[in-house]
Amino acid sequence: MIGVPIAAARRSLAAIAFVVYAALVHGVAHAALPVVATTADLASLAAAVGSDLVSVEAIVPGAADPEAFEPRPGDFEKVRRAALVVRVGLGYDYWLDRILRQVGDARFARGGSGYVDASAGVPLLEIRGEAVVNESGHAHGVANPHYWLDPDNAVIITAAIAEALVRQLPAERARITNNRDRFLRELRERRERWQNELAPFAGTKLVAYHNSWPYFARRFRLDITTFIEPKAGISPSPGHLRKLITDARAANVRAVLHEPYEPEDAVRFVARELDVPVATLAVSVGALPGTADYLSLFEANVASLSKALKSTRRP
Q1: Where are the domains of the chain?
Q2: Of all residues in the chain, what percent carry a pLDDT higher than 90?
Q3: How confident is the model at residue 27 (pLDDT cuts 50, 70, 90)?
């Protein structure tokens, strides 16, 4: 008489365990769709679109220079485990091609189901006829690759990511679409505030160390007149700095833009000679404190630049 209830209880427990296991497996299968992005910026956008349906990793840390990056053994393993790879393209992450060749997965070939070049469809600036890699190892593709620094381009980038995620998870189309719509609503609201914050400085002339900012400058109507490095990855000579300072003084430059991983000495020297502030901006998510995602990247950069320009004496 006692054995019957025990057997029934065991069957019930087994059934409950199976249901729990199935639910966990189903949830993990959805939440852990592995996505690898070459940069923290694209990883942040992929996470915004995929939300809990995806697990996103970036290859390049936010505080590193993607144009001078060397892949590590673990990066090859990240790609091997991925269902989707998202890249900047335009020569910015040229080193990814070596990883993809070694991994040898047809899904990650151009046009493959697991491959996204986020530059596709973006209105590009500084278009050139060919791609080169200079002696410093810096890549220069067919256009300036820093297109994510125009917040409006996130509309195009997230559309490409959403389309690729729907290919992987067709049953989750509605959730992916809703995630993207929610992100874009918040982006539009913040963009209006960023625009208003920088509107008083429209046409302001700036000097930058590296040519990272044409998309940002176009969106917020700023004028970057020249660059401290004469070529990407090449340190400035004394003669170059003398001419730059003379020209920048004549142009009434009001600030010098600096990125965290670029050399500081030349930046500080130029700013001191011009008697203008240095605005340290994050070119990528995670490059500075308070830039943990795509939206906070712009929050920090707009605040930093606005503060620097407000401190500048007007002629």
Answers
A1: 13-191, 193-310
A2: 78
A3: very low
Q: Where are the beta strands (DSSP E) in 96-230?
A: 115-117, 132-133, 139-140, 205-208, 223-227
Report the 10 Å Cβ neighbour count for 261.
14
Segment 267-275 shows an average pLDDT of 97
Overall average pLDDT of the 156-162 stretch: 98
pLDDT digits (tens, 9 = 90+) for 37-85: 999 999 999 999 999 999 999 999 887 888 889 999 999 999 999 999 9
Mean pLDDT for the chain? 88
Task: Output the pTM of the full model.
Answer: 0.86
- C-alpha to C-alpha distance for 144 and 88, rounded to whole angstroms: 11
Cα separation of 40 and 183, whole Å? 17
Dist CA 315 CA 313 (whole Å): 7
Q: Which CATH class is domain 193-310?
A: alpha beta
Q: Does domain 13-191 have CATH number 3.40.50.720?
A: no
Contact at 8 Å (CB) between 98 and 56? no
Q: How many CB atoms lie within 10 A of CB 52?
A: 12
Polymer length in residues for the chain:
315
Rounded CA separation 269/253 (Å)? 14
Burial annotation 149-181 (CB, 10 A radius, 16+ → b, else e): bbbebbbbbbbbbbebbbebbeebeebbeebbe
Same fold across 13-191 and 193-310: yes
Stated as kind and residue range, the H or E segment containing 86 is strand 84-87
User: In which residue are the tokens 């963009």 written?
Assistant: 191
In single-letter form, the type of residue at position 303 comes to A
Cα–Cα distance for residue pair 165/159, rounded to 1 Å = 10
